[in-house]
UniProtKB/TrEMBL annotation:
<dbReference type="InterPro" id="IPR025269">
    <property type="entry name" value="SAM-like_dom"/>
</dbReference>
<dbReference type="GO" id="GO:0015074">
    <property type="term" value="P:DNA integration"/>
</dbReference>
<protein>
    <submittedName>
        <fullName>Site-specific integrase</fullName>
    </submittedName>
</protein>
<dbReference type="InterPro" id="IPR050090">
    <property type="entry name" value="Tyrosine_recombinase_XerCD"/>
</dbReference>
<dbReference type="InterPro" id="IPR010998">
    <property type="entry name" value="Integrase_recombinase_N"/>
</dbReference>
<comment type="similarity">
    <text>Belongs to the 'phage' integrase family.</text>
</comment>
<dbReference type="Pfam" id="PF00589">
    <property type="entry name" value="Phage_integrase"/>
</dbReference>
<dbReference type="GO" id="GO:0006310">
    <property type="term" value="P:DNA recombination"/>
</dbReference>
<keyword id="KW-0233">DNA recombination</keyword>
<dbReference type="Pfam" id="PF13102">
    <property type="entry name" value="Phage_int_SAM_5"/>
</dbReference>
<feature type="domain" description="Tyr recombinase">
    <location>
        <begin position="137"/>
        <end position="312"/>
    </location>
</feature>
<dbReference type="InterPro" id="IPR011010">
    <property type="entry name" value="DNA_brk_join_enz"/>
</dbReference>
<dbReference type="GO" id="GO:0003677">
    <property type="term" value="F:DNA binding"/>
</dbReference>
<dbReference type="InterPro" id="IPR013762">
    <property type="entry name" value="Integrase-like_cat_sf"/>
</dbReference>
<dbReference type="InterPro" id="IPR002104">
    <property type="entry name" value="Integrase_catalytic"/>
</dbReference>
<keyword id="KW-0238">DNA-binding</keyword>
Amino acid sequence: LKNEGAVNSAKLKNAVLGMESGELTFFKFYEQFLSDYEKKVNSGLRVNGTRSKYKILLKHLRNFALTKYGYSDVPFNDLTPDFVQDFDYYLRDDQSLTHNTIWLYMIGFTTLCRLAMSRKHLAFNPFSEYKNTKKDKDRGYLLRNELEQLVTFNCEKKKDELVKDLFVFSCFTGLSYSDMKGLKNSNIQDFFDGNRWIIVRRKKTATSSNVMLLDIPKMIIEKYAGLSKDGKVFPVPSNTVCNDSLKRISQLIDCLVEKKVTFHLARHTFATLFLSEGVPLESLSKMLGHKNIATTQIYAKILNEKVGKDMQKVSHKFKGMEQSFVSQL
C-alpha cells in the first residue's frame, strides 16, 4: 500500500483479505475461465453468445461485490450461501432483471462455483441453500397446416426464399440457428440403415444431435449444394437478416399474420410436430441434443395444454346432449 499512494477503503479491505498478494481469487479464476472459453469459441466448440452471457455475469458480480461489500475482488472463502442469495436480491431489486434472466445468470454462476470446487479452490458449495427454477413461458410453434402454408409459399426475393428454406429445414431437423450456420457437408452421413443422417455436436450444449433426413430437407440440401464456402452446407445469413425476412414472409401468409415468427420458432415446431406425430420423447430428446429429458418434456406439456384448450372450444357443442342426459338421471 505504501507504493500505491493514497489508501482508500477498497484497497485496505483488499489488503486485509490478502487479495493483493498475487493469490488466486474468484474474479481472477473467472477471467481464466473466460480466456479458456474464448479459445473454445474460436475453435468452434462453443458459441459466442454464451461467452457474452458469461462476460455480462462477471460484470454484474463485480458491480455487486463493489456495491455491497466494497470489494474489487472476492476471495473464495467469501463465496457463501449469503453471498449467493444477496446477489439474487441485487439482480432482482437493484437491476430489475426478470426471473428467468436471473435464473440464467445463476446457472452460469453455479457452473463457475462447481468448477472451482472440482479444482479445490472452493471448499464448499455456496449454492447449497439456494433454490430457483425457471418459469415456463409460452413457446411458440407452427401447427402442421401453418407449416404447409409456409412450405408452399412462393417468395419474390431470392434472399427471402433462402431464409424460408433454411427455416423449413430447421422445422424438419430441429437444428438451431447456430447449428445450421456451422453445419458442414461432413455432418451429412449415410448410415447402415440406408438413410442419410445429420450427425452434429451441438455448440450450445456440446451434446450429440443425430437426425435422419426426410425428403424435404434432402431436397433443400440439393437445392443449395455448392453455394457455400469452407465445406458448409448452406450460405446462412445473419440471425437478424433471417428474422427480418421471416417477419416479411409471415405478414404475407394469412395464418401467420398474428404469429411472431423467428428462426428459433422452427426448432420448437420440430419438437411439437414430431411429438404430436408419435415420435417418443426419448428419441426426440436425442435428436434435439438435450442434456436432460426434462427439457424435452416441456414440449409434451405444451401439447397437453393445447389439447385441453381445444376440448374447451368444442365442449359447448355437447350442451344439448348433456341436458338430455341430466334429465334422465
